[in-house]
Amino acid sequence: MKGTLTEKIISRALLSGDPVTDTSLRVRVHQTLTQDSTGTVVYLQMEAMGIDRVKTEKSVAYIDHNTLQTGPENAEDHRFIQSAAARYGITFSKAGNGICHQLHLENFAVPGKILMGSDSHTPTCGGLGMLAVGAGGLDVAEAMAFGAIDLTVPRVIGIRLTGSRKPWVAAKDVILAVLKELTVSGGIGSVLEYSGAGVATLSVTERAAIANMGAEAGATSSVFPSDDNTRLYLKAQQREQDYLALAAEPDACYDRELTIDLDTLEPMIAHPHSPDRVTTVTAAGPLPVQQILIGSCTNASYHDLMKTAAILKDRQVHPGVNLAISPGSASILEMMSRNGALADMIRAGARILECACGPCIGMGQSPAGGSVSLRTFNRNFKGRSGTSDAAVYLCSPETAAVSALTGKLTDPAVFLENLVVPDDTDKYVISRHLFAIPAAPSSTPPALVKGSNIREVPLNAPPENQWRGEVVMKAGDHVTTDDIMPSDASLLPFRSNIPHLSAYCFEALDKDFVRRCRETANGLIVAGRNYGQGSSREHAALVPLYLGVKAVMAQSFARIHRSNLINSGILPLTFLHPEDMASLALSTKVHFLNVREALETGTPIQAQADGREAPILLRFDGSEQEVAWLLAGGKLNWIKENMKGEVS
To answer: What global pTM score does this model have?
Structure first.
């Protein structure tokens, strides 16, 4: 990655190692973010570490996922997170303030710095020139505890944008075109780095929308150069002092290069049930639509919603369509209420939702069974909307708003000739009254406040060299973390209660999974390619750990979930010979012969399956540090044993 923007940012934060020759580095983490869906576990892990105060420049705890108060659980989680923020020196963002990624872009993102967040869409801030990485909660807790973390050197995929977009072609169409090319696994282990003349035609919030959905390709992060557009955005947010010009060298060396010609791009749409099933809107046809949702961390910026309001102004939403809009932040909502755009939306027949993740995470607005829902969100996995047989499509705000008027999927270019949106981004309303800034350190730090729903995080034990397990799950390719640990409105309030969640693990794929685990010692999961894609939720590892799962044998893993398995002490193993997967059926008993020995020496693990003569050879591909975590029974065990003196 010599000469790339990615290398430059990593080099600025480097504590040990060489980005060119080493596979693992120690880098400074300048900022972190958590949200309430993952945050409770993060702060329970920080408590277990014995941390006194964070060592980052800025850490922020956002409340944006669990905002439905149908019982005491969410409010108790919020109270716990706020008490943890006060105790550890973390800025707290109250419910209603907005979505973490939009808020962080507006208020805290700084070009050239490293951000880690316990949410897979943390790379949103790459639109402003940060190296922003989504991670599991324990990795973020470690970053806050030490101000640093071990980083596997990524490959860098250079994406060159040429030309300029035609009217009605949105930033969302750019990233959908990238996903069509890369697929949901093409970015694993990589940073997507954007360059080319087309970059200058994109605003910071448009770049952020593109960077946000790099996560759907499995990418570690996405990053844009920091240029004059960046400076203007920071100036509009009254943060021009944070500006730093940064770009790749003209002769930068990439592991792979991809060109997107903006001149030829058309409005795009992702079909159910994957963000990479992309065609043009025209090719998808005039599909009747019943629900349209505009918002989420991908497309709830001020500019996105002003375009939406301009389309809806003096028009009416089709009588057969339910249109709902969720602004990305309280500042955006206030601006639209002042300039009349909010009234235009309401008069057209739109419902205005809270400034929160809401339906994107499955908290409300589930569509009717068998219906079609157009969403400007980033994921359309089966059942994620809360309705298993709904057909969820992903598109731009322009396509969504025009389709809301016609009642069917409509290419915006054939509906209106032009769209004029006032260029008033130098007049952002700065609204920070929903942030709670931590007090100075005290000799008697505030106590953590835990409700009855908050339970301790389960810990694993170090693996034995030889042990027997049994296959409790066999799955195919692209199993998502939604599949492993569902996250609908009924379960999201219990993210701090692993025992409660354990009853629902894999319920959509195999209703007998939990029973099988409870009847079996040392459960084994067998899966195909890209196991664990999607959300960063640690619960997809912690819940199987609680149920006794000891190893996952797959053809390949999604990056964050693989890390979460290691952090939990669950072995993520790949087949040396992929055809061996066929010999492992449900209830097959497997004898592991040399686990610790193989991990220590980097040799294949031998596993003998009942009814099969030849051993199955499995491998763990990871760093020496990851091996150490596994041998300790998980990362938290290792930190408590080896880094007591560094946590303060």
So the answer is: 0.95
